[in-house]
């Protein structure tokens, strides 16, 4: 079962569109898939205090984050009839305009993939010990706050 | 309680907590409870009291006061901001 | 305004993962985007009567479909605070395992992109005059029915 | 009404309706209403009555009985199955 496999979910630096394309094309051999839902988080160039966000530097508590991500994956497979599910989050520096989160769900019929994708994004943002430090154009920095 | 009852625990800190402590990991001495550990940290690093910090013991978030031993790893976790 | 621009929404044959990657990377210059939601429809190798679905051949009533797609785009921009929105649907033959529908929404915060993407997929499937003919392994064919 | 009141309209057909008619587009003669046009089509192609077909006049789906003129394009639309 895909749900049991321990996967590499952290990526050093931004997630490239090429990586996403390869991830999509790997699924063309799974002929029972009818729907894919992809969520991509992109670093915004927000205006904060004295400067613009130029990049976010992500760190995580990996030994805690990995089992939590595994548990979220397993809960998601138990809750929705998915064919597969992939989660990738950046660590280190990701510039404004680059992708830092890639959540990818696939199912026979679209409802499962769509609902599972939102479910995963919500839980990842709330439950996984990852921190983003926003690096501003004036070289100061601010710890990111999720809304 | 005298100092012989104290244990050594490993503290790991992330995000703004790491900035306040000035290190990703330190060893502190404290009496063998989570509350005692938190009090010591706040005395050592008063700026910690200004932040919302959750504590994890051996990778599990704990809100009540539990006993600690020398093998415990205590993590200081500011609000998560992944994604 | 992006909503006013008449765009090419039909693609001859399958939608390649390379096309999707290029579409994603074009958005890296839009620094107010924080979230992308992508829906991909993939042709399933369903078992039907006497054979397996090997491909779907799509046809459309283009002169009617294009203004309907434009109206759906405009309604979607009016309803959700989106940065941009793209819709691509295949015409002609798409093999099982290949992508036939690509809906792509982007916004500053994730809720708009996520809700808009589902809104578009529902309306496209219901309202746009497109027909899929399922080509079976025994060379017979069946007109696809959307559930 | 005699045949001099009849008009010529262009019929375009899609999906299974195109298979039944055997062509993507034909010209038929009918009295100048949508219902008359539908009746003529069903007489010419009885298998159309077995299918759920919506009719569009000049790219607009129409369910009521409206008047037609010679410039009308009548489309036969089986259930959509895009995506």
If you had to describe this structure to a student in words, what would you say it looks like?
The complex is a heterotetramer, with two copies of chain A (147 residues) and two copies of chain B (83 residues). Chain A is of the alpha+beta class. Chain A has a domain of 92 residues: Aldehyde Oxidoreductase, domain 3. The model of chain A has no long low-confidence stretch (mean pLDDT 95). Chain B is α+β, with helices and mostly antiparallel strands. Chain B has a single domain, classed as Roll (Ubiquitin-like (UB roll)), CATH 3.10.20.30. Chain B has two helices and five strands; from the N terminus they run βαβαβββ. A five-stranded mixed β-sheet of chain B has the order 2-1-5-3-4. The longest helix of chain B is centred in the middle third of the chain and has 11 residues. Classes of the chains: A alpha+beta (147), B alpha+beta (83). Chains in contact: A-B, A-C, C-D. Chains A and C meet through helix 1, strand 2 and helix 3 of A and helix 1, strand 2 and helix 3 of C. Strand 2 of chain A pairs antiparallel with strand 2 of chain C.
Large-scale geometry of chain B: globular
Main β sheet profile of chain A = 8 strands, mixed
Structural class of chain B: alpha+beta
Full CATH superfamily name of chain B: Beta-grasp domain
Percent in strands of chain B: 25-35%
Order of helices and strands of chain A: EHEEEHEEHEE
CATH third-level topology of the domain at 10-23 and 32-42 and 63-129 in chain A: Aldehyde Oxidoreductase, domain 3
Largest sheet of chain B: 5 strands, mixed
Sheet/helix structural class of chain A: alpha+beta
Helical fraction of chain A equals: 25-40%
Rg measurement of chain B, Å: 12 Å
The name of the CATH architecture of the domain at 10-23 and 32-42 and 63-129 in chain A is Alpha-Beta Complex
By DSSP (H or I, 4+ residues per run), the number of helices of chain A equals 3
From the spread of the alpha carbons, the general shape of chain A counts as elongated
CATH C-level category of the domain at 10-23 and 32-42 and 63-129 in chain A: Alpha Beta
Our Rg estimate of chain A from Cα atoms comes to 16 Å
Give the N-to-C terminal Cα separation of chain B.
45 Å
Poorly predicted runs of 5 or more residues of chain B = none
Q: What count of helical segments of chain B does DSSP give?
A: 2
Q: What's the β-strand tally of chain A? A: 8
């Amino acid at each position: 079962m895909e749900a049991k496999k321990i996967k590499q979910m952290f990526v050093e630096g931004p997630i490239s569109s090429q990586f996403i394309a390869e991830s999509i094309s790997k699924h063309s051999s799974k002929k029972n898939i009818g729907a894919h839902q992809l969520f991509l988080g992109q670093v915004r160039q927000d205006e904060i205090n004295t400067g613009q966000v130029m990049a976010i530097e992500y760190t995580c508590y990996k030994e805690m984050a990995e089992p939590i991500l595994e548990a979220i994956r397993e809960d998601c497979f138990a809750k929705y009839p998915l064919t597969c599910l992939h989660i990738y989050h950046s660590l280190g520096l990701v510039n404004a305009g680059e992708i830092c989160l890639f959540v990818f769900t696939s199912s026979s019929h679209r409802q499962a993939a769509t609902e599972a994708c939102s479910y995963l994004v919500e839980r990842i943002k709330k439950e996984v010990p990852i921190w983003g430090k926003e690096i501003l154009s004036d070289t100061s920095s601010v710890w990111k706050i999720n809304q | 309680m005298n100092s012989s009852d104290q244990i050594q625990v490993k503290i790991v800190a992330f995000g703004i907590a790491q900035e306040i402590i000035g290190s990703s990991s330190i060893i502190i001495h404290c009496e063998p409870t989570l509350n005692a550990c938190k009090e010591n940290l706040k005395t050592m690093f008063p700026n910690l009291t200004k932040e919302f910090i959750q504590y994890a013991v051996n990778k599990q978030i704990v809100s009540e006061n539990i006993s600690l031993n020398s093998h415990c790893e205590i993590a200081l976790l500011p609000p998560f901001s992944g994604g």
